[in-house]
């Protein structure tokens, strides 16, 4: 082989160095993601979504960077799932009882009054039972999404600015916000009037008197300052409203396996923290609500029996139309075991 002259050697060395540089750059490629959610930064779910992003960014050591967009900067509560599905964002905060029923109506079972007694029981239904798995797989398959983290918004109860919610008579004529379809049978049975509103419009609607009553987790009335116009609350809780951080599956599958594992590990860790604290957060909010002069009525005895009778006679039959009989039976069997 001929000896290379100096010029040829220089070219060869440069090529080798360049090849090494580009190979190293490809290996250290930075992946990026936009995390969108509608919660305000002080909301329980927003705090833990931010915690998730911060922890992933720290552990990824520059290989994955998540940028956070809170407060509906990109998409509102009703648009998040579509944004993830389309790839408009890579990760989003989903309130499933809002986003999932249009994909599969049987997810309404999660909001069936008194069906599940905890977040754990509700999640296990969708993860372990045949009926629940079928619902879950259908939704995630059609929407092209992958679960990263449980991030609950809190157990739901009724708040009002009208008057104390201590009887069925007190519920008549209330101007109630309806966020989800499964709420309407209850409001109709109570004789209340309903207005459909996304989260971002609730404060103004309360301020102007368009509505005076909402179903909400306690933490939300503090995070969005709704308690400025709400002075009365009613227990017990109606159902456990969960939320998730979900990723676009195509984007998720494009990541190296170790980054996928990192997202799942951080999601499990931060999700456990979020879940452990959510009931405590609700109780703290109700204590502060009372300190502000709020009145919390916990139904019991004959009063509760009146509400229960109305639920059984009118609300439950109306909600059954929103869920397949087989799914409702499967859920009832699951919780009885």
Automatic annotation (TrEMBL):
Tagged with keyword Plastid: no
Keywords (A to Z) from UniProt: Signal
GO biological process: transmembrane transport
Signal peptide boundaries: 1-28
Keyword Glycoprotein annotated: no
Protein name: Neu5Ac-binding protein
Lineage: Bacteria, Pseudomonadati, Pseudomonadota, Alphaproteobacteria, Hyphomicrobiales
């Amino acid at each position: 082989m001929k000896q290379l002259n100096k010029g040829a050697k220089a070219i060869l060395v440069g090529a080798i160095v360049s090849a090494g540089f580009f190979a190293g750059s490809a290996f250290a490629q930075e992946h990026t993601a936009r995390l969108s959610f509608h919660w305000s930064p002080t909301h329980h779910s927003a705090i833990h979504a931010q915690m998730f992003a911060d922890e992933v960014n720290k552990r990824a050591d520059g290989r994955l960077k998540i940028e956070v967009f809170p407060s509906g900067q990109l998409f509102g509560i009703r648009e998040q799932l579509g944004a993830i599905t389309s790839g408009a964002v890579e990760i989003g905060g989903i309130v499933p009882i809002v986003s999932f029923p249009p994909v599969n109506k049987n997810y309404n079972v999660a909001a069936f009054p008194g069906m599940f007694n905890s977040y754990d029981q509700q999640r296990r239904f969708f993860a372990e039972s045949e009926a629940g798995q079928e619902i879950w797989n259908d939704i995630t398959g059609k929407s092209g999404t992958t679960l990263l983290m449980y991030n609950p918004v809190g157990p739901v109860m009724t708040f009002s600015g009208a008057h104390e919610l201590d009887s069925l008579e007190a519920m008549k004529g209330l101007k109630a916000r309806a966020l989800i379809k499964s709420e309407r049978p209850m409001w109709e049975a109570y004789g209340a009037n309903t207005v459909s509103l996304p989260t971002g419009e609730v404060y103004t609607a309360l301020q102007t008197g368009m509505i005076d009553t909402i179903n909400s987790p306690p933490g939300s009335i503090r995070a969005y300052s709704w308690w400025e116009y709400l002075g009365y609350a009613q227990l017990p809780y109606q159902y456990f409203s969960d939320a998730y951080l979900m990723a676009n599956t195509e984007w998720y599958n494009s990541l190296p396996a170790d980054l996928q594992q990192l997202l799942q590990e951080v999601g499990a860790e931060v999700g456990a923290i979020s879940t452990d604290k959510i009931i405590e957060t609700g109780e703290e909010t109700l204590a502060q609500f009372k300190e502000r002069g709020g009145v919390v009525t916990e139904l019991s005895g004959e009063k509760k029996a009146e509400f229960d009778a109305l639920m059984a006679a009118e609300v439950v039959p109306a909600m059954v139309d929103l869920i397949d009989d087989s799914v409702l039976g499967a859920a009832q069997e699951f919780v009885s075991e």
